[in-house]
Structures are given as structure tokens and as C-alpha cells.
Amino acid sequence: MDTLAELRAGRLAGATRLDLSCGLTEFPREIFDLADSLETLNLSGNALDALPDDLGRLHKLRELFCSDNRFTKLPESIGQCSKLDIVGFKANSIANVPAAALPASLRWLILTDNQIEELPDTLGHCTRLQKLMLAGNRLSRLPDPMAALQRLELLRISANRFESLPDWLLSLPRLSWLAAAGNPFDTQAEDAAITAQSVPHVAWQDLALGKKLGEGASGVIHQATLKSSQQDVAVKLFKGAVTSDGWPHSEMAACIAAGAHPTLIAAQSRIDGHPDGTEGLVMALVPPSFRTLAGPPSLASCTRDVYADDAQWTADVALRIARDIASAMQHLHARGILHGDLYAHNILWSAQGGGRLGDFGAGWMTGSLDASQTAALQRLEMRAFGCLLEELLARCSNAPPTAVSALKDRCMHADIASRPSFDEALRILQREAAP
């Protein structure tokens, strides 16, 4: 029996989570029978365009997901759910976000890939907000009351219509992961960066694709062989649609502009002649001894990566990983590139080989910004590095140097101007690392 039939038969009494993806055009009223237990409601992948006016009857609801539906307006009844922690309405046709639709309890709001031109000032009342996903809309400004979002750590405003960034954005004390590529102020910088740092082109016919190595929102990565040289490489084929980070074209631009660096997984060449017109990049194949440092954030952890329960390393290994990533970030900042997603889940590591930074899905350029804005944005990424240091040091099997713990604290300082640059961080890590 399917889930909807079980719900209607009363067999789901006491359920804390309900997932329904079965072509719904109306909200099943039987969901209210779970009002005293339901905490997570996932109605993604249906044909809904409205929620009931009395949604607040679900008084224990903490997580609501309605992505890939037909909403044109964020339902105001959402605001009645006073315990809502996470709301996700990705890939609808939402153009209207009423003030009443935003409960003050929100910690994570996902409105990616809609048609939103304006956000209400009351978004600034959601002071618990840590994660805000707005890529792929029609926004040209953010409400000034959002300056009150002192807990905001991750913001995605890529693929919108911003001519500039609001000044208050660059002083938020906890903002660490910011993506803003594919806006008018950034697109010229993208084009200039690609022109300045061109890469060779490889014909699709010269590639023999092997097994799939991984898949993300923006594309699929395969192991491959260059037929002409018999060289083993990695190939990323882009999907083309807007992602939670922005446009795949922006990712390609950042990856190409990054150039070569020993601790960076960057582009070696660009693919021409794919039979479906798919864009793609050829990258170095990282040895199989390297593995991903951590998993991405969970619904519970929100902005922080999830490590394996047994994740542990010596202080020397932790310092080598930190040094390698600091070196990669120093290189990117020197080239006017912001990574936007400096996380352990985008780092490959091995005990002997150190760390390698990849995934430019949230990468963007600072070429059109003035020096003070660029410096502030680079200091935002220092807080992301501070989070990484904190996670690495917490899992050391022996005590790390006190100077590195002090560096971590400086990287996470609430006053952005007090944070070090990657130049300084790298000098400290090189000094403290084992010979």
C-alpha cells in the first residue's frame, strides 16, 4: 500500500515524518490527523500551488519541504507554524513572498530557482537564520533590515540581478560562505578572468569515459582517459540548469581562472564537441589514496559538515591539510577569486599527501569590486577556514600547537577586520608544521 493510502487508512498515527510525492494537486486534509506528532513534512515533487489556511494546526512541525511544485506565492499560512526551523520551496514559480509567510523561528530558508524580485523587510526579524538560499531568482537588492541577521553564516545570491552588494552584508560577524556569481556586477569579471587565463581545448572524441566518480548539483564527474596520450584524467560534465550555488557557467569560469596550483583541483582543459552540446572540463585525477574529508552539512548541523564518528588524525596531519588548503586559498585570492564554499566536504585528503581543494560551484570573481570590498570578502572566507581549523583540531589524537589554536580563534573573530589574511595564516602554519 502506498503512503497516501496508508495515511488515509489511519495507519500512520504517531508518525514524526511524512513524505508524499504522488502527483498531489491538493493538500491531503488527513495530514492534520498527525498534528500531535508530525515534525517533518516533505511534499516535494507534486503539483501543488497552495497550502491550507490552517496549516498552523501542525503545531509540532519543524521542517517543511515543498520543492518542485507549482507555487507562485509563498503561502502565508507557513507563518502560523511557530516552531518551523527549515522551509524549502526550491524550483517553483514563486514571485511573491508575503511578510506573513516567514515565521521568526526560521533557521534555514530555501527559495532557490524561483522568480522572486523583492523580499519583505520582515526577513530581518528571522534572527535565528543561519542559512539562506536565494540563487536563481530576479533579486536586485536585499532588504536593509537583514543587517540584523547576526547569525547568518551561509548566503547564496548567485544568478540574480544585483548591480552591487549591500555594505552591511560585508560586516555580518558570522557570514562565512557567500556565493554571488552570475550577477551583473560579476559577469564582466567572469568573462575577463576566462580571457586572461585560457586553457587548452580537448575534443570529445579524444576522451574515453570510465566509471562515475561522483555527482553534484552542477554536474557529473567521471574517470576518463585521453586517447591521444593514454593519460588518466577526471572529466566533469555540467548539467546546465541553475543550482543552489548558481550557474554552472560561473563554476566553469572560476575553475578556469584558478589556474594551476599543487593543492588545488583545477581545470586542465575545456571540452569541445560533446554530441549534446554539454559543457565540460578535464581535471587532474586525484590518486585513489585520497578521500573526502567529511560529509556535507545535515539538516541538524545546518552549516557545519558531518564527520565520520571515527575521524581522527595526528596534529601533524591536521596541520598539513590546513597548510595545503591555506596555500590553495592564498592562490585563489591573489587571482581575485572567492571560493564561496570552503568546506571539508570539498577537500580530498590523505595522511601522506595532505589536502586538495576542489569544487568551484560557488566560486566567483572580485574583479569589479573595489579594494576594501575585496578585502572584506576575503576576510569572510577566513571565518570558513577558521571553522575548518576548528574541526581539524577537534579530531587530533595529540595536542596541536597553541599558535594554531590561536590562529583558529583569530579567523573566527566577530570583527572581520581583525581576522588574518591567508598570507599570514599560511606563514603561521608553515612555521608550526613538522619539517
From TrEMBL:
One cellular-component annotation, GO: cytoplasm
GO MF, one annotated term: protein kinase activity
Matches recorded under Pfam families: LRR_1, LRR_8, PK_Tyr_Ser-Thr
Keywords: ATP-binding, Kinase, Leucine-rich repeat, Nucleotide-binding, Repeat, Transferase
InterPro entries, per database record: Kinase-like_dom_sf, Leu-rich_rpt, Leu-rich_rpt_typical-subtyp, LRR_dom_sf, LRR_domain-containing, Prot_kinase_dom, Protein_kinase_ATP_BS, Ser-Thr/Tyr_kinase_cat_dom
Coiled-coil region list: none
Keyword Glycoprotein among UniProt keywords: no
Keyword Kinase: yes
Domain named Protein kinase: residues: 207-435
Residues that bind ATP: K236
PANTHER family: PTHR48051, RAS SUPPRESSOR PROTEIN 1
Protein name in the entry: Protein kinase
Source species of the chain: Variovorax paradoxus
